[in-house]
Specification:
Length: 162
């Protein structure tokens, strides 16, 4: 049993490292996409081939562990596409330069352009939203993200916050 968990987590770890390398390489070339998460599918294929060829005896829980780990890391990887820098992180980051601030100081951090414009540009760049003249609409890729967010909110009975 321990050997199957070690094997599963070893394959997952290699997939995770390949995912990070792939994502960084794509971003370096100006390509922002979540498709680098497809590396986990390759890891799952390796895990299944080991299981079906008899190379390693893996219980179904190992495959579920791999799938769950991949899902969680992929969800975490979606974070930059679902809001980037949050107002909370902007406030906390501002304390790096000024350790004591008034509410008015903190409000100066936020502009409509900073709160909405940057996020809208990120969504357009990643293909989640499409811009036509001055109008924006959600793309088919964005609809998948919306459904994922709604699922998250429903399952955990909460709303997303900044």
């Amino acid at each position: 049993m321990i050997a199957s968990i070690v094997t599963t987590m070893g394959i997952f770890s290699v997939s995770c490292i390949l995912h990070v390398i792939t994502h960084r390489a794509l971003v370096t070339h100006g390509i922002r996409t979540i498709k680098s998460a497809l590396v986990y599918g390759g890891g799952l294929l390796v895990l299944l081939s080991l299981c079906f060829t008899g190379g390693v005896s893996l219980p179904i829980t190992s495959i579920l562990l791999y799938a769950l780990s991949s899902f969680l890391v992929s969800w975490f990887s979606l974070a930059p596409y679902l809001g980037g820098e949050t107002p909370t992180s902007m406030i906390l980051d501002s304390y790096a330069t000024k350790t004591s601030q008034t509410e008015k100081d903190l409000q100066k951090l936020f502009t409509e352009r900073g709160l909405v414009g940057k996020r809208l540009n990120d969504l357009v760049t990643s293909g989640m939203v499409v811009q036509k003249n001055t109008k924006f609409s959600v793309s088919s890729k964005g609809k998948i993200a919306v459904k994922a967010i709604m699922f998250y909110q429903k399952v955990f009975n909460r709303t997303m916050s900044g």
